Each structure stands twice: as C-alpha cells, then as structure tokens.
Amino acid sequence: MAKNIFGGFKEYSVAEFFKKNRQMLGFSGKVRSLTTIVHEYVTNSLDACGEAGIHPHVEVWVGEVEKNNRYSVRVKDNGPGIPEKLLGKALGMMLAGTKFNRYVQQRGQQGIGAAGCTMYSLITTGQPVKFSSTHGGKKICGKLGIDFKANKPVLMEVQREDCPVEEHGLEVEGVFGETKYERGAHGVGEYLKRTAIANPHATIIFNTPEKERFVYPQSVEELPEKAEEVKPHPLGIGPNDILDIAKKAKGYSRLSAMLQNEFTRVSLNKVKELRELVPEVNFEMKPGKLTWDEAEKLVGGFGKVKWISPATDSIAPIGKTQIEKSLENILNPELVYVTSRPPKIYRGGIPFVVEVGIAYGGDISKEGKGGVVMRFANRAPLLFDAGGCAITQTAKAVEWKRYEIKKFDDEPIAILVNIASVHVPYTSAGKQSISGEEEVVEEMKNAIMEAGRHVQKHLSGKRRAREKSTKKKAIMRYVGQISADLAELADEKGKGEELKASLEKMVETRFE
Fold first, then answer.
1. Whole-angstrom distance between the N-terminal and C-terminal Cα of the chain?
2. The domain at 234-302 falls in which architecture?
3. Which CATH superfamily is domain 14-216 in?
4. What CATH class does 337-453 carry?
5. What pTM does this model have?
6. Which of 29, 56, 158, 229 could form a disulfide with 104 if both were Cys (CB 3.0 to 4.6 A apart)?
7. Residue 173: left (phi > 0), alpha (psi -120 to 50), or beta?
C-alpha cells in the first residue's frame, strides 16, 4: 500500500515549478504578458546601466508575427553587457543574479525576470531567445534556451568575435506566443512612457508594430545617486533572519561581536542593554550555537530597545527636480508641483521614502484622460492591479473638492507616486500593487494633500482671474455710454472721447 502511495513521489526544479505556474511571474493575459516581457528586459537594462554609471539608452521594438497572438520583442541597450561566463545564467537560469542577498534598493530581487522571458518564449512558441552581448572587448552572439528539469541554461549556435574595448551593450530578441499588443493604460507604450517619466536620466525609444517611433529623450544630466548597500536593522528582522546571519557570519568568537558588526545601529551600549533585557541569552557564545528560542528572545529584546532609525543610504529616490523636469517634458502641463517626504520606517525597521508629483492641464487633457494615478515602486511603473493598490486607494480617498477639484476622474490632473525602499511592501509576488502599511499610507496621504494645496492655489488664482476679467468686461461695456452721458450733463459734449479714455484707464488700473 505504502509503495503505491509514494510511487509517484518526485523532485521538481524551480524552473519546472514556474513553467506550470507562469502567472506568478506576471504571465497572465495576453496584454499583460507582453508588457511583462518588455518590463523585465528594460528593467535589467536600466539596472545594469545604473550599476555601471552609464546614461541609459534603451530601444525597444515590438513586431506582430501572428495577429493578436504572437509578437517579437527586441531590446537593445548601451549597458556594460554580460561576461560570457555569466551570460547563460543571467538569461536562462531561475533564481540566479546579483540582487537577492543585497540589503539595498533595487527594481528586482529574485533573479527570475529575463530567465522568465526565455521560459515564456519556449513554452508558447518552442523558440529560444537570441542574444548579443558586448563586454570587455568581446562580442558573443547566439541562441539560448532552458533545461527545465535541471534549471540550467542551454546555449546554441554561439559565435564570438573581438571588438573595441570601448564598445559595450546587450541585445535580446524573442518571439512570444499568447501575447497581444494594445494601446492603452496597460500596454507596452504606456509602460515605456511612465518608465521615461521615472527615469529622466535615460533615453527610451519605442518602435511599435504599426511602425511608429516614440522617443523619450534624456531630460536631466545628473545620474541618480547610487543606493548604498547597508546592514539590516534590528527592528526589521525575525528569528530566522538572525539564525541565517549567525550561520553565515564567520570569524566571530562571540555573539555580541556579531551583533555589532552584522547589524546597523547596534553599539556596545545597545549590547549591554540587551544583556539586561534577555539575560537567558549568552552573548559570549559562538554565533553558530544560537538556538531558535534564543533568537526569539533576542527579537523580543530588540523590540524593547530604543533604536536610532535605520540609515537611508540604501534608498535612492527619483528626486524633486528630476520629477519636475520629467513631467514638464512629457506631459507639458500648466502646473507641476513635486514633494518628497522625509525618510520614514515601516514594520519597525524598514526605511522608505514617498515622492509625489502632481501635474495639471496641458497634454493631460488632450489625451482625454482625467484623474490619472501613476504608480511607481523604486522607479518601476505599476500598471496592473490598481484597484487593490494602496497608492490608488489613498489618492482616490482624498477629499478633492477641498482643493477645487470637483470630480477627480474628470479633471485634467495626473498624480505620480513613487515608493522607494529596500523592501517595497507589495501585496503579492506579482509586484504590481502596494499593501496598505499604515506608515506608508500616512506618508502618501500627507504628500498628496500637500500637492493638492498647490493645485488649489493655482486653480483659485485662475478662478479669481476669470472673475476679474468678467467684471472688467461688464464695466467696459458701459464706459462709452457713461462717458457720453456725463459729457452731456456737464455741457461738455466735445470732451466725451477724452472722458471715455480716462474712465477706461481707471478700469484697467482697478483690474490689473
């Protein structure tokens, strides 16, 4: 009996898992799948350029292969390229990359993105992706697939050639089934437009299936400040995190030394406080001997200590000036206001920054849209799952009538909200909406209301100007008749025109 029950027991690789659960990677629905593919490649390009200190120049081509079902996607960048020994892993191996174990702000973390696109090409068309990487004086081209059972890349038709050392970049191209190109709020075009807004230091070019070409030029010279990798803060971790760090930390003979060196804000005095709060933990033992119960007691002790807030060096927001220039450049509004809130923490120890930009009028009304909420997390646009996102909910919950916005959804107004953090509080693995963390929501609300007050000031000024103009026109209509009547009453009929000019000047002065 037991033999029959467990006869089908098998092991599965992470690649096989995602092959059967592709919706977890954002491949659900034809439009969303195409946008997800472009997002993954463009994000990789922007991150690579950022790490190398290069102004990104990213060009995207989307072409129709089979109507409303199969599209080709090609993305080319001027980044550092990928070394040959890492190329296969970067594009064709799940959970491989440079980001997962770093405590620093970044667009992606898991090391799935580009490999997920390779997977999607294989399972929807049976075709591998093409690549061309130029790095360190070498250019390597070929095709790439995935051995799903082993979760390993499969390189094919590889060609190598020498090239000038100063040349660099990556080009990836694939054909993807079960995809659909659409204009609109969830399409590739809107995604790239918003990516350009959040990355004004980059040049982004989009070539559509209809042979149109949209160019979003670089609008600022300054490269974003690099987010520094920092150590974890005691208030942002659990028992399992402490045990992981204790196992990996080598060269420490005492737990106290590990705490001071592997965590931020833990000084000798803080260790003394912890000794008094959790006397049952031996701070002189080797970190590797720490038990789960002791780790739990340490976490309890952490919660009783008054800590300095975590360093915000790990966060790199877009920047007020950059957002202003970007919104002006792309939306051409009549009003732009941007605010950046001071760094705060949520869940006790995770630092974050909220940035809000508001634009009114201009090209927003030309597009026939009203009440646009542009959501971003670490500069990456969030196009899907808007209804369940705390950003949308917070923006819509504001009492806009107080700011002379009668109906938010009908006004030519656009709000940009960017959450910058080491760990963005997403609602799910799809990373398309933000959860309602109390501290994050409060900061968003305050920032949106501050921006709203500036819209109110602008609209109040416009309203007063209209009222003044209306009054002036009403009075001016009667100046001619009044001048003639006054001249007649004063028996000065020849001075009617002179009197009219004087009255007009008085009205002009009054309504300046």
1. 96
2. Orthogonal Bundle (1.10)
3. Histidine kinase-like ATPase, C-terminal domain (3.30.565.10)
4. alpha beta
5. 0.81
6. 229
7. beta
